[in-house]
Fold this protein.
Amino acid sequence: MSDWLTEKLHDDYAQSLRIGEMLYDSKTEHQRLKVFQNGTFGRVLTLDDVVQTAEGDNFIYHEMLTHVPILAHGAAKRVLIIGGGDGGMARAVLDHASVEQVTMVEIDAGVVEFSKEYLPQLSRGAFDDPRLNLVIADGADFMRTTDGGFDVIIVDSTDPIGPGEVLFTDHFYGHAKKALTPGGILVTQNGVPFMQGDELTGTMRAFQSLFSDATCYLATIPTYAGGPMAFGWGTDSDARHVSVEVLKERFAASAIKTDYYTPEVHKSAFALPPYVARLIP
C-alpha cells in the first residue's frame, strides 16, 4: 500500500498526495524539507508537510506572479524576489531579457542547495545567471535595510506561519513600498481566499493605506487546493489598466513561451467573484 502525505494547512480541510518515492527528507535550521515523486504532479516539495511547489503545476504560480507585474509595468529593469528558494520564480523573471538585475532573498540556504539537486527543472540554470544576486537573509530584515530602487517586488512567501509570518505585516509592506521606484509594483502570494480570507483582507488593508491602486488577481493552481489563489497587487501607477493590445505587444516582444499566461488571462485575472471582492476592505 502506498504512503500518502496529508497536508493539514486548514482547520477543516486537508489534501493528500500519494508518495510514489521519497527522494529527500531532512530538517534544516528553519524547517523540515521533503521532496517526493507523485504520479500526477511529478516531484513535489513540502516544507513542514505543507506543499510549496510541484513540477506539474508550478508554471501557473510562477508565470502569474512574474509576467503579470513585469508586462503590466512595461519597463522593469530591477526586480526583487523575497523567498522563492527553489529558483522557479527567479527563472520566470529572468526569462524576460529586458530585466537587467534580479535580487533574490531567501532565508534558508538549505532550500536553495537541495533545490539545485532535487528540483533543477524549476530553476533551469537561474542560479548561474549573472543577472541574479542571491542573498541568504531574512526577507523582513533585508526589506527594512535595502536602498531599494526596484521596479517590481515579488513576495514569494510561505503561508503566514513560522518563518513566513513576518512577511505579512504592515511594517513589511511599508518597507516594500519605500523600496519601489515611482510607478513600481508590489505583488504577493495571499493564499486561497475561500480558505484563508483573513490573510487576503489583512494584506489588502495594508495595501490600501500605501497604494492608490490596491487589489488582487486570481489563478487556479491544483496543488494549492480549495479554490483559486489570490495574488496581492499594489502600485501608484495605472499599470493594472494597460490595454490587452499593449500587453499583446509586450508579450510578443518578450518572446517568452508560456503554459498559462496570456494577455487575455492577465486582464481577466483581475475580475473578482463577489466572495473574493468582499474580502477587500
Observations:
- The longest helix spans residues 58-73.
